[in-house]
Amino acid sequence: MYPQKIEGITKPNKYIAVIDCNNFFVSCERVFRPELRNKPTIVLSNNDGCVVARSNEVKALGIKMGTPLFKIKDLVKEHNIAIFSSNFELYGDLSHRVMSIIKNKVQNYEIYSIDECFIDLTDIYQSDKSEFSRDLVRTIKTSTGIPVSIGIAPTKTLAKICTKVAKKNIDLHGVCNWYDQDFDSKKNILINSEVGDIWGIGRANTPKLQLQGVRTAYDFAMMDRKSVKKQFTIMGERTWLELNEIPSIKLADNPEPKKSIASTRSFGEDVTTLEQLQKSISGHVAQVAYQLRKQKSKANILIIFIRTNNFGTRPKYHNHAVIHFDIPTNSTSLMTKEALKALNTIYEKGYYYKKSGVVVTNLVPNCIRQINLFEDENTLRKLDLDEQKEEKLVSMIDRYNEKSGFRIVKLAVEGENKHRWDNKKQLLSNRYTTRWQEILKVK
DNA sequence: TCTGGGGTCCTAGGACCC
DNA sequence: TCTGGGGTCCTAGGACCC
User: Fold this and answer.
1) Pairing of the two strands A16-21 and A82-84
2) I want to staple A55 with a disulfide (CB 3.0 to 4.6 A). Which of A41, A155, A262, A266 is the partner?
């Protein structure tokens, strides 16, 4: 009998909702190109490699998320699909606008990704959660142009399932509320969602479940709890509980600072020389160091990596180096120096490199100061002074770069602005909302 | 010819300790 | 022939998400 009874747990009456932007990147492009409404449209990943966003018309053609562009050339031609390079400056700005509207309406929210936000509606003033949500859908649409869907349920996992229902049924006006369903409809919703589509059940576990005859969310919810935990660990158990209406994944409001920050990118053209790699690694280091400073953190560990193409027949090589700092840092110059030293040790001549990147982890808040064993008080004081000086300079540079919108001030090793091997972005739309030069012109 | 980027969490197993 | 037992901490790798 669904939902399964779970001993010792009383269900709290929670109203968790998830707001999901429909085909977000595509919707962003359509805001400024309304003639593309109802026309098949896709947005590509970096280097114009894979499809990362699809309009409904494209989904209907059976084009899957992540498909490389070259594999669908024929379909693109045949159906006259509109193609865009990814324009993260635009998407980031529109996302920010959507989230601001949500923040204005609810106290408890968790921005989950660029296009998704969980909210807790349990304690909002309005008693009709569905009406509140339909209103939110309308407000977001009229003030940003972005269509969204909202699912409301006792748990995050069920809410995610409900948004999918909301997207499929136009007459729901963008909102599906689990609490509005009778027993049979709830059961039907679960029966109609494939086990692999459940939030938390991924590529690796889907076949495992299917082999046991578990094909739908309903099948999964009806499994034996112990068997779920044994096979899919505590993560699977949480999902199982959530499908049985027991909240087990908390709303992460007041977000924690990031625990790791990465900057990685594949090259638009073959890279072979150490000098080119130095420039790209320096650029990545500058990026993560800036983000570290922005969230007021310092890093204990810096990892750099370089790799050749995973595909194709040319010789493959990948390697990484891990740098431990004695004192946590967010200094671009110090991190660059160490990163380049490390790059020397992993660079091998004769390969065609395709990608490089850096990751910082073991982050600590700025204010925590790990005392090095060998530091006495005088060196400490001097260090503090040096640090303050550097911090002043760096924050000035950060502010200047933010204001100008580009990273104009940077270390010499990064080199000139544009490299031949930089990202390919041949189909980029204008950054309508963040650059004056590219603002929409009304004729 | 052409195949993204940036995160989080959990577990198993080794190192180390008493 | 014998080769404890139990704890903690750390890391690499896997699984997941968008």
Assistant:
1) unpaired
2) A41
